[in-house]
Amino acid sequence: MLEIRFHGRGGQGTVVLTTLLAHSFFQAGYQVQSFPLFGVERRGAPVEAFLRLDRKKILARTNITTPDHVVIQDQTLLKNIDVTKGLKPGGWVLINGSAPPSDTSRFERQKVATVDASRIAIRHGLGSRTQPIVNTAMMGAFARMMEMPPMEAIIAAIREEVPAEPERNIAAAEDAYREIQFL
Length: 183
Hints:
The chain has helices at residues 14-27, 77-80, 117-123, 135-146, 151-161, 166-179; strands spanning 2-9, 31-37, 46-54, 69-72, 92-96, 111-115, 181-182.
C-alpha cells in the first residue's frame, strides 16, 4: 500500500488534487482512499489531505502518519510546517516552486523533485496571478515522478471531474509532466 500526504493552503485545490488522483488511480485499477484534514477552514490556511492506494482492498481507516511520499503545493509551508514528519526514508518529496529549496538538508533521506506549478497554472489562466490554482499541474508532475497513474487516467479524471476549463487543466497537467525537475 502507498500512502501520500499533501500539504497546501486553502484555495489551492489540495483536497481536489487528492480526489482527482484517487479517481485517476481508480481508473488505472487501484483501490483508493482520499480524505482531508482541516484546521482553520479559510483561504490561505494550511491544509493537509491524504491518499492511499493499493491493488488490494484497503482496510485501514486511520490518518496517515508515516507517508511514503509527500506533495507540497506551496513552498512557503517549508518554513513553518515539518512536512517531512514521519516520511519514510527513500520517499519522494514533490515541491511546487520556481527553484529548489535553499536548504535541502531536511531531505537528505528522501528524493526531491520540483515543478513550477504556479507559473504553469498562471500560464493556463487557472486562478489568478496572486492565487494560482495548481492542483492539476501538480497531478501531472506527480504522475511523472511516480511513473503512475498513466496520463490517460489523469486526463480522463480531469475531463470527468473538472467542469470549469477542463482543456486548460489538462494542458497544465501535461506541461508539469514535462517540466518537473529531479534533484
